Amino acid sequence: MTAPYGSWPSPFTAQMIAQASPRIDGARFVGDEVWWGESVPAEGGRVTVRTSSGDEILSAPWNARSRVHEYGGGAWTADAEGTLYFVHGGDQRIHRMPRGGAPEPLTAAGPAYGGLRLQHGRLLAVREDLRPDPHVRAIVEIPLDGTAADDESAVRTLVSVNGFVAHPALSPDGKQLAYVQWNAEHMPWERAIVSVMHLESGWDAGVPSRAPVQPEWLSDDRLLYADDATGRWNLHLAHVVDVAPPPAPTPPATTEPFCLADADTGGGLWVLGNRWYQPLDDGRVVAVRTNGSDEIVLISPDGEVVELLTLPITAGASIDDAQGSRVLISGAGRTVGAGLWCVDLDDGTITTVTGGAEADPVWVPRARPVTFDGPHGPVHAFDYRPTSPDASAPDGELPPYIVMVHGGPTAHVSGAASTAYAYWTSRGIGVLDVNYGGSTGYGRAYRQRLDGQWGVVDVDDVIAAARGMADAGLADPSRIAIRGGSAGGWTVLCALVRGGTFTAGISRYGVADLRMLAAETHDFEAHYLDGLVGPLPEAESVYIERSPLSHADRIDVPVLLQQGSDDRVVPPSQSEAIRDALAARGVPHEYLLFEGEGHGFRAAETIVASLEAELRFLGRTFGFEPRLGA
Description:
Blueprint: H1 14-20, E1 24-30, E2 33-40, E3 46-51, E4 76-78, E5 84-87, E6 94-97, E7 104-105, E8 112-119, E9 122-129, E10 136-142, E11 156-161, E12 164-170, E13 176-182, E14 193-198, E15 204-207, E16 213-219, E17 222-227, E18 234-240, E19 253-259, E20 277-279, E21 285-291, E22 293-299, E23 305-307, E24 315-323, E25 326-332, E26 339-344, E27 350-355, E28 368-374, E29 377-384, E30 401-405, H2 419-425, E31 430-435, H3 444-448, H4 457-471, E32 480-485, H5 487-498, E33 504-508, H6 514-520, H7 528-532, H8 540-546, E34 559-564, H9 572-585, E35 589-594, H10 604-622
Helix pairs in contact: 1-10, 4-5
């Protein structure tokens, strides 16, 4: 059939999208089984734990979700006998649940926990206590006998800081603890350090590092970690002497590159459970390497690197666990949806544990890497063309496009098969996913392009990408929308203030006023703006000048604002300030407040309502009649 772009019939409904891609949240070998965490959109986005034998270990209303640093991560683990340890989202206490039994608390109410690590029979966690001032974060050991359920003092504090900590790792002999720490004035990708503590003496010393992630012990005196000292996150090896009080040698470790590449094994430390690599018992290492897209490599002890080409993963890769020669790897690919795979590195067997369904190429477009010339250098993106076997547009019509802007802004998107994007492309609406300057995955120089320039470089880059598509005759320049959430919502609003390129904007829980954000946001990001814009009060005039709310009178295109009522990262006051400014000037707009949602939409009903509202909004704005149903 011939029909205008945007009005094509599509098999992808909003209800399908809400249920199609549950998020994989960590995976473990447990005895002869594989366990993994999985979000359940139909149950408000709660995270359950499932097994390869078909069981659901954690039933409603239990929810394995941490709120440490607000973004959480590492909310569950399990031992070989099938005992589950998890942080319940409702009270942030750690619970223990024997298989077939009922959850019982291991910690008292009050602090929040995350980043759980079960090593050598000891349960470690990151604890965040927001009750005192200053707020205190610590790496702690949780007694497994339940004595800390009513007595908070029974939790053993191993490290306590006024800043932040992550990635605890015990040496094989249990005498030393490695971890990542950073102070409140910096984000972990700006400046952090690997520390090693001698647990008996309490003596703590740093390993030379710049922005490290994920320390892992290879032996009692060899510590592997990822660091971007070379300009890319690469693996490094520290030879650690037994840390003890002076006169111990200083520094306590010598370091050397383990395996260098023009790609990243590592990334922004937003959540506590990320795993970019796993050491194997025989000295080999399985690792993610990211240069735009992800690849999985096997590194031998002598430094030989082999890419695991038979794996379909190119995006969102995580090396979740290793057991013998077997490795659990989650992610998505250009031809497959999100899933979890078990790889036997000795015999080459690849088993799909869950998800990973082949995308129908007739309906789901393959991401096309594209690069545009921008005023600050190259701009990287992924293009998803309108795709349908049943419809085509009238001759001479160019498709409308949505320019997607990821959050962070220190984050990254990789091209992967996406039913969420097929929701748009199957209807005749193109999608351009932009990794603007400041994104990870292209090296430190690309990431630092945004330093002091948030609201400038990101806006220049998305405009360059949108105009590049229009100049190439691939997108209708009069029908290009921009859509983003959180920091991406900020870029949306800033781009609309700039004007001249985008004819509609969709902001999800976007930042509208920098001073308001600095005053209201949570601890983890309290000084994020120092590097992105400048410190207060010295840079207050820049905060005012850059903020979209200061120039809302320049927005002259329709805007859809969406917000979670319980968002503690970007509170509703931000979206509501822009709403009021648009209303005062009579600019077409819509404001949707979703009760019970935080920073990101998890509930199926919210996802459905949000997608359908966006489609109707674009139909009204771009002049097509959208088809909501299949």
